[in-house]
Design a protein that fits this description.
Number of helices: 7
GO molecular function, one term: DNA binding
Radius of gyration: 22 Å
Number of domains: 2
Structural class: mainly alpha
Largest sheet: 3 strands, antiparallel
Number of strands: 3
Organism: Saccharothrix ecbatanensis
Strand order of the largest sheet: 1-3-2
Order of helices and strands: HEHHEEHHHH
Oligomer: single chain
Protein name: DNA-binding PadR family transcriptional regulator
Keywords: DNA-binding
Strand content: under 5%
InterPro entries: Tscrpt_reg_PadR_C, Tscrpt_reg_PadR_N, WH-like_DNA-bd_sf, WH_DNA-bd_sf
Length: 189
């Protein structure tokens, strides 16, 4: 299993394989470009850059200013990135706050659960719009990476469509549960 640090190294080295960047620019690129499937904090990026520099996988192009230095990947860094990419993907334990709440939804009631699911439906629709914009931006680029980038967008689109479909189904079920609860309340009044 690949450690979290190795995953961060992949993100950092991968970003620098596209172009040299400062730590700040790297964080912004990860957020803006990889953000639909990966995130890294400044607290992860700067120590990783320092470690990769010590190992000879990146080099500073301007060593005079530590935080403003531009980092570039070295040939050894490219080889290390390729080794990391070839390792099996690290599975992460599921943590879904929405499903945790729905599992114990009897305590919330159908109306509150519907509000949670409706928010998920809205997020899925917004994600699909965001993916359409990302796809459009990538389609306009002439890069050897273009088709690979589009694979990640496609995965996001599929996930968002599945979330949207599930939310519609869940809203129907919750409406039935609400109707059943109303009927019960009507009989006991």
């Amino acid at each position: 299993m690949m450690a979290r640090a190795s995953q961060t190294e992949i993100a950092v080295l991968g970003g620098l394989s596209i172009q040299p960047m400062t730590g700040y620019a790297l964080r912004e690129a990860i957020r803006d470009v990889l953000g639909h499937f990966w995130s890294e904090s400044y607290g992860q990026i700067y120590p990783t850059l320092a470690n990769l520099e010590q190992q000879g996988f990146v080099r500073r192009q301007d060593a005079a200013r530590a935080r403003a230095s531009t980092f570039a990947i070295t040939p050894a860094g490219i080889r290390h990135l390729e080794e990391l990419l070839a390792q099996p993907v690290q599975a992460t334990p599921p943590r879904n706050g929405l499903l945790l709440r729905l599992y114990f939804g009897r305590h919330l009631g159908p109306a509150a659960c519907r509000t949670l699911v409706q928010a998920t439906l809205t997020e899925a629709q917004e994600a699909l719009e965001r993916y359409a914009r990302i796809r459009s931006e990538i389609d306009g680029q002439d890069s050897e990476d273009r088709d690979y980038w589009l694979l990640t967008v496609s995965a996001g689109e599929h996930s968002a469509r599945a979330a949207r479909e599930w939310a519609h189904e869940a809203l129907s079920i919750l409406a039935e549960l609400d109707d059943t609860a109303e009927t019960r309340r009507g009989r006991t009044s």
